[in-house]
Specification:
The two termini are about 15 Å apart. The strands form 3 sheets. Strands 2-1-3-4-12-11-10 form a 7-stranded mixed beta sheet. The chain has a 3-stranded mixed beta sheet with strand order 5-6-9. The chain is globular. With about 190 residues, the protein is α/β, with parallel strands linked by helices. It has a single domain, classed as Class I glutamine amidotransferase (GATase) domain (Rossmann fold), CATH 3.40.50.880. The chain is about 25% helix and about 35% strand.
Amino acid sequence: MNIGILALQGAFAEHGTVLDHLGIEHFEIRQRQDIERSFDALILPGGESTVISKLLRDLELLEPLAEKIENGLPVFGTCAGLILLAREVEGGVSCFGCMDISVKRNAYGRQLGSFYTEAEFHGLGRVPMTFIRAPYIRSVGSQAQALAMVDGQIVAAKQGSMLVTAFHPELTDNLAIHEYFLKMIKN
């Protein structure tokens, strides 16, 4: 298995560290030629969604990646990655727009509104969750399923081969969310 990690901005290196711990081959996607490689899944990291969206367009990565995702490439979006995949974005513009969710950007406020908690994640029990200027999912459409909630807000969801979290599982020592994604890829 080989996973591409979008490495334009944000917490991409941390996802690579998690995959190293899990013994999973991976590489960074920085330019168009990188997506010509064969890969089994994609990780869209946290960062600044408007910057990542602009770079995807400027580097001509948006269309080919969107096509791969639409054709069933498994994708895991954390924080900004969640925003990039959402069909509807309050306080921003949809990028890939392929996941049947509506999200609110910077829902927990500015950097000072960042926090850590533990909460139930469907099928995994309690997991650690680090939120940094995080969005939350306002609603899931009929095709998507909510997987975790914090303070009444949806913070994780899946749809087909897409998984999203409003929090950063790559910033904890807990590998459960990445393992969950790896099981999604294999299924």
